[in-house]
Amino acid sequence: MSDTSNARQAALDYHAFPKPGKLEIRATKPLANGRDLARAYSPGVAEACLEIQKDPATAALYTSRANLVAVVTNGTAVLGLGNIGALASKPVMEGKAVLFKKFASIDCFDIELDESDPEKLAEIVCALEPSFGAINLEDIKAPDCFTVERICRERMNIPVFHDDQHGTAIVVGAAATNALHVAGKRFEDIKIVSTGGGAAGIACLNMLLKLGVKRENVWLCDIHGLVHKGREIDMNPIKSEYAQDTELRTLDDVIDGADLFLGLSGPNVLTPEMVARMASRPIIFALANPNPEIMPDVARAVAPDAIIATGRSDFPNQVNNVLCFPFIFRGALDVGATTINDEMKIACIEGIAALARATTSAEAAAAYKGEQMTFGPDYLIPKPFDPRLVGIVSTAVAKAAMETGVATRPLDDLVAYKTRLDGSVFKSALLMRPVFQAARLAPRRIVFAEGEDERVLRAAQAITEETTERPILIGRPEVIEARLERAGMTLRIGETVEVVNPENDPRYRDYWETYHNLMARRGVSPDIARAIMRTNTTAIGAVMVHRGEADSLICGTFGEVRWHLNYIEQVLGRDGHRPHGALSMMILEDGPLFIADTQVHQHPTPEQLAEIAIGAARHVRRFGITPNVALCSQSQFGNQGEGSGSRLRRAIRILDEAQVDFSYEGEMNIDTALDPELRARLFPGNRMQGPANVLVFGHADAASGVRNILKMKADGLEVGPILMGMGNRAHIVSPAITARGLLNMAAIAGTPVAEYG
Q1: Which residues are catalytic?
Q2: pLDDT > 70: what percent of the chain?
């Protein structure tokens, strides 16, 4: 079977299995008993209905309308497929709804209407206003789309956005903004030649005018040639606005000296000879799909300095509407905007363009591994999977809506709003907020043992941008510099980051002598000390912390925990510090759950279990959470004499005697810990209220297994492991940790020592 056949079948299978289509409806409220039914439907539902009747604005409080978008089409201009009809367009509309949900957590219904008359189509769409917070018009042929949008915008009091027009125009505007920045040109000075007089092409030109392009510098061509005064064939009032008063008639006639070619037409429209006659450093946006107006390699053969964008994902600078529509709708919905105006669109453009000029996020780099993502000719706009888009762009849109008076539910605090949006994509953001705030109060020096790892480098970049900490990297400077350059990061050795070179560092003698003095009576000779200080980066980092040259060590991006722990204990396990246990915060859909001890004690003693519980409770409070600690076992409230149950029961007695200041109970099964009703039935009068949020296990295998199951099967995000008992001077992470995870650990390590145990 050919590659094409395989790809076709794979696409069909994707849509067909495990169930047909790409969408389903899920309830957001429980419906488990008669009480729930009485609230969800009759009679309780009447209360919500009456409130909305009294005040229509309360529909945003009692229904999903404020987060619900209709994706509407009649199937007359679907992708590159043309007029395939409403039913055949449904997979595309379902796909659009999936993108809304994935990138901006917006719920959608796709609505395919079998109506070709634009005025009747608009009539149907207008009738949908009570159901939706906004309308996304999609794949309606030109010029009908202009009519439908105009009527809907005039009559509806919610945002109506034709993505084929305005989404494309916004992303083109962002790409053009940055292309001109790279080329050293200005909107008001450039000559634009465009092919394609359809909805997208006209909308792009309209947007470029708003950004500063002069109308007399725009030359619009379509299949019939140049749009000029006096032309009658295939003209409409919108296209006529770009008619030039000239004797020139063809694309070939007008291409000379063009700074920007904007193609939204068809393949091979722009020839190499035409490119050669464009201005120096030409900008070529060949956006026809799947085959552009000119292939990038063909254009560069005659203009090596050309700045090129296409609509394809296999070339740099893909102009993709997904960079825009989820985020402009997110901002509009969240302030109850009555429309999406020009100011909101321009705010969207500015947000997208600015993000591309910033350092690439670790998450985007992971999603597009191997691609160069440094701002420049081949990176004009960010990637759709950059998780910062929703926070930056939606906040800018919401702000513009408020400033222009179209927001019916203005936000009190845009900073808090952006933080909440970031929290919707960075699952750890809200929970880590108090930790980051504490870390900012006392800048600390964090040393990373595996300083050449790209995840560490990206975390170090984020540390310099988001905290006051100063990262220290252990690694070879030439390797670090090469990887920074390849990844497009702005860290500078000796300026924003310090590097310790294990192969050649002036402190080498001091380090090995320090290590030897600490370990001389444990069988470590000077030769062994020298060798370890040349090769063992964990030991080097621990020595730096011991000597006061760093405040905390982070290691473990590769290797085995016990190996790292050995050197940490050797060097830092002094002055009352010793590892009590490892605590992992698992961020789940319904909130955080803390697991201990995942990696220090294989079979903790009762005394160690009590220490683990006390340390876990102390650390949990650092996240602004009240600890509710359950000591978990196969045994339940004394029903088994063997196994971990007896150790946990003795740990409970130790906690009782210590009169600790947190809630705890045990020993019990996990389901009993998490289900208060079950616990009350099995042990009436138990001392714990509500579900446990900290699970302490009597065996490391159990704790580690629960942590990994939650991570792999429940989409849990781990923050940690946090090494308890070391005075916050060292932490051993997991080899599976991400750059974001390392940033979180740096914030934990960056909290002043006095606040941690």
Answers
A1: 96
A2: 97
